[in-house]
Amino acid sequence: MQWACISFPQLALDDVLRRRADHASPLVLFEGAGSRARVLAANATARHHGLHIGQSLTAARALYPRVNAIEHDAAAVERCHDFLAAWAYRYSSQVCRTFPQILLLEVRASFRLFGGWAALQAGLRRDLAALGFVHRIAVAPNPHAALVLASARDGCAIEDEAHLLGALGTLPVERSGLDAACAESLQRMGLRRLRQLFVLPRAELGKRIGAQALLHLDHLRGAAAIALDFHQPPDVFDQRIELPFNTSSHESLLFPLRRLLRDFSAFLAGRDGGAQRFTLAFEHERGTPTEISVGLLAPERDPELLFAIARARLDHIRLREPVCGLRLISDELPPFTPARRDLFDTRPQQAVTWDALRERLRARLGEQAVQGLAMHPDHRPERAWRAHAGADTSRGTRASSGTIEPLPPRPAWLLTRPIPLRERVARILAGPERIESGWWDGADMRRDYYIIETASHQRAWAFRPAGEEGPFMLQGWFA
Predict the structure, then answer these.
(1) Who has the most CB within 10 Å: 60, 109, 357, 470?
(2) Using one digit for the tens of pLDDT, what is the confidence trace for 68-114?
(3) Closest C-alpha among 324, 455, 463, 308 to residue 382
(4) What is the distance, to the nearest Å, from the Cα of residue 170 to the centroid of all Cα atoms in its chain?
(5) What does pTM read for this prediction?
(6) Per CATH, which fold does 237-332 belong to?
């Protein structure tokens, strides 16, 4: 097996920064109340002004009064960790989030799919950069070794047991995952590298450092296995962004809306699914949220398409009060089928597919403004079709005695109502085809239909009353 470890050294801070349009303004996270409030994390701008972890919040504000201080939300960090675990299912079916700010993925089975570790690692880093998370990644034959190497050497890749001990042996004992007291005790004994511990007799070393520390060293070398609890992604996406200030401007809502939809797309990709319907709730200080329900004709997960549809819907609503938070909920997550394209498709890459164009038109013009056509089981031409919202998957067939038979040719352009054919008939190409129907609903008709060619070389679909001679009535034109 091969285990990849993804470490998030500033997960709580990233979870806050990625939801804000302004990353440059000084910001710190704090925990505690009153005089006991301490800085838990600080962004680069805050550190530039002398603010640091462990500093009292009072001292930080005295040093830089304009700093934006946000209370640490442990529950939000847990939700963020869950989201990342769901995203990681795109790369592995075995994802473990047992350790805080850590994801462990068994990736050996994914090498063939992604083209080796180098390509898989590039995909992981590309996605995490787009999602806005600082990260460190390493891969090793066992999960504990990968975890320790990720914190010590970002990008380290150990593909076999033969090289594992050599890579671990160079690590300082304080970077080995041993508790601080044990590491300090070993350093006082002159043992500063793991390779010095590995050559000592196991029984005597255990008396010095204890059974728990000895078991940890066994885990690092792969001599002892550990049972991992694998994460199962939820069947519902429910994520919320609290805005840093209340706003009634649609433009101010676009950044958090785009961030939510990118997270939604990453979640869908992780479960190899799409979204058929989702709800956007714009929360207010008072009263119920303003909700937008977005329904799609087919499952989608492209973040730009979802954003374009949601933005068009947002443009059509009026917010009764300023918005303080934005929430996205979806529980209709069917399997996703990518759009099919020809191997030698000559369309430019920036061209919009028909499905994407259809969804954007529905979002901008309204769900009822864009309709498809479907065949309806009725022989009368005026009633043989229906407008509907979905794509037409029917074919020109009819049932007869339990079998499916092809229909005779039908024109692409059917007139709203028949009119007299004023063109001179050059010849009759096919017919008559008798259509006799409608006696049960009071719209009885008995007609003989013909395909004719006019003097101007147009092909028409026309009829006469059944069994009669006389002028033709035009029903439609063939392309």
Answers:
(1) 60
(2) 999 999 999 999 999 999 999 999 989 999 899 999 999 998 998 89
(3) 463
(4) 40
(5) 0.71
(6) Dna Ligase; domain 1 (3.30.1490)
